[in-house]
Amino acid sequence: MLKWNKKKFLIGLFLVCLVVIAACSGKEKTDEEKLTELLKDTIVNSGNIKESSSEVEPPTVESELREINNFLTMDIWNDGFVNISSYTRRGTDALGQTLDIDFLIERLGKSMEKKAEYDTYIQGLDPKYDDLKQVWTKLSNETDILYNTLKDNKPTANDEDYKFDTGLYSQYKDAFSNDVMALNP
Q: pTM to 2 decimals?
């Protein structure tokens, strides 16, 4: 008789589990339904993002100067001058990768066009930025000197005699970075 009670108990437990699973599965969405709902929400919300992004305030002088500072670090130094120095010493870029020197000089030329726009912007700043403008003038002139050196005398790989001294550029760039970071946001 004990075995029969045990069987009844297991059958009852099984039926309860079936009822619970059936009840839960009716409310649960399939992965496809969840994905469809997510995509619909994303599309609806993307319209809201566009509306709110058009309300973004215009950039401040400080944010523009930070952008210029980032440009100098990334486009002029990291993608340009530091690779030239490495190329003349080791024949590779700063990370040890193969370097197409003609392509690098071409890309640096495009960055120099952008730098010319920044020259105009900085020279047009209020007198309260005169100290920063003075540092920029030195930095900009040194950048031009280095770029003209590349154009007039293209470096070759592993040329230890190639003169490409970035010491002044680094000094002026560090001063400019410090001055920009010292500005209030």
A: 0.68
